[in-house]
Amino acid sequence: MATLKHDTIYDAAVIGGGPAGATAAHDLASQGARVLLIDRAGRIKPCGGAIPPKLLREFNVPEHLLVAKAKSATIISPSNRHVNMPIEGGMVGMVDREHFDEWLRERAETAGADRMTGRFRSLEENEDGTVSLKIECADNQELSVCARQVIGADGARSEVVRQAFPKAERVPFVFAYHEIIESPIDLGDAFAGDRCDIYYNGKFSPDFYSWVFPHGNTTSIGTGSAQKGFNLRDSIQRLRKEIGLDGQATARCEGAPIPLKPLKRWDNGRNILVIGDAAGVVAPASGEGIYYAMACGRMGAEAAAAALQTGDARALAGARKQFMKAHGRVFFILGIMQKFWYANDKRRERFTSICADKDVQRLTWEAYMNKKLVKADHMAHARIFFKDLAHLFGLVSPQR
User: Fold this and answer.
1) What DSSP element (H or E) covers 14?
2) Cβ proximity of 278 and 155 under 8 Å
3) Rounded CA gap, 5 and 189, in Å?
4) What is the pLDDT of residue 387?
5) What gap in Å lies between CA 147 and CA 191, rounded to an integer?
6) 3-class DSSP state of 321
7) pLDDT value at position 382?
8) Using CA atoms, how far apart are residues 155 and 168, in angstroms rounded to an integer?
9) What's the pLDDT at 398?
10) Smallest Cα–Cα separation from 24: which of 325, 368, 328, 319?
């Protein structure tokens, strides 16, 4: 780890070393900016770890970081109906956040960023336009860091947002919890190392979903809910017992809130920008965050670089504009899907039936792989539209 340059005024101080922060630090340092990446010790976000092949290509991530490749997903309804969704000509890559995030941080350091382990405590804007940060280190020593820009990538309950955007709206959250367990050797059809299992069942989550995602030698089994009082740990214990995973050794447990709506503003118009979970860029309905965090981190780095080069802080607003232009429509549609289809088990049962449709499966995987809505096949969209109407009005049985 590089030695911290205490007398340096950094071009950018990035708070948070997850996929968004590490990507922003890497991109800025690669362009010659003086960058400090600050990350808390030992923090691992609860995450199923799914990434599309597009991420590997777009961010030059080597395949050896994948701990598994899922070739299909199985949707399990409240009535225990199983719908298999094979991925034709593709796969979903699986990563373990403990190792994936550290690789991203090390890459940022190799590109020239300084790294510092510590907890962000406070910020203060100076008269010369720079920002002073107070960082608490592992030995409880407090250090002061100065930067021309601050990029907050410190998660859903962002302290940067709380201090720099005191009037920011409260965004909806799903509280996620998962356990990393030893993968079973033989559970028959109940588990497969190349298949993601997704449970839409109110007893495991009243308003979201639960998952079993293979990670090679380990497996992520988790759930989420925005409902206060719902016991996520008990839910996972019930799910593990029901599918025969209760006897597997548990390596670690993690929990954290996941935002489901982008903030309306990501910058203060001067010298502070937020990205990743801090900006609310996790996809509704799916909870997918890794790709969107890295895309947001890259767009944030581009906006920050433009502001540094031109001296025009208005360039910082470009990060949100660019992201919402690319992904805002997808987020809007997924938000509607979650609000409607996850409302109760009757709707979840019908949603599972819709997932059995071959048109739905093909367009879903194409959209996932390419990270955009598929526009080419108008007839398929028309068929899905009328099938959705039939399910909405109960004109077809959910078991068909």
Assistant:
1) strand 9-15
2) yes
3) 55
4) 47
5) 49
6) helix
7) 44
8) 15
9) 57
10) 319
Query: What is the mean pLDDT of each successive set of 10 residues along the chain, which is 400 residues long?
Result: 65 97 98 96 85 94 96 96 91 94 97 95 95 90 94 95 88 92 87 94 96 95 94 97 94 91 95 97 91 97 97 97 94 89 93 88 84 56 44 46
**Looking up tokens 């959910």, which residue turns up?**
398
Which residues make Cβ contacts (< 8 Å) with residue 237, sequence separation at least 6? 246
Q: Which two tokens stand for residue 390?
A: 């039939």
pLDDT of residue 43: 79
DSSP for 136-187 reads E-TTS-EEEEEEEEEEE---TT-HHHHHH-TTPPPPPEEEEEEEEEEPPS--
Tell me the β-bridge partners of 133: 123, 145
| Tokens linked to 175 | 């509280």
Q: Which residue has the tokens 């030698």?
A: 217
Closest to 120 in 3D by CA, of 178, 159, 66, 71: 159
DSSP E strand stretches across 205-349: 210-215, 218-225, 250-259, 272-274
* Buried-state track 151-168, b at ≥16 Cβ within 10 A, e below 16: bbbbbbebbbbeebbeeb
Residues with Cβ within 8 Å of residue 252, at least 6 apart in sequence: 44, 179, 180
Instruction: Give the separation between CA 47 and CA 20, rounded to whole angstroms.
Output: 14
Within 10 angstroms of residue 241's Cβ, the number of other Cβ atoms is 11
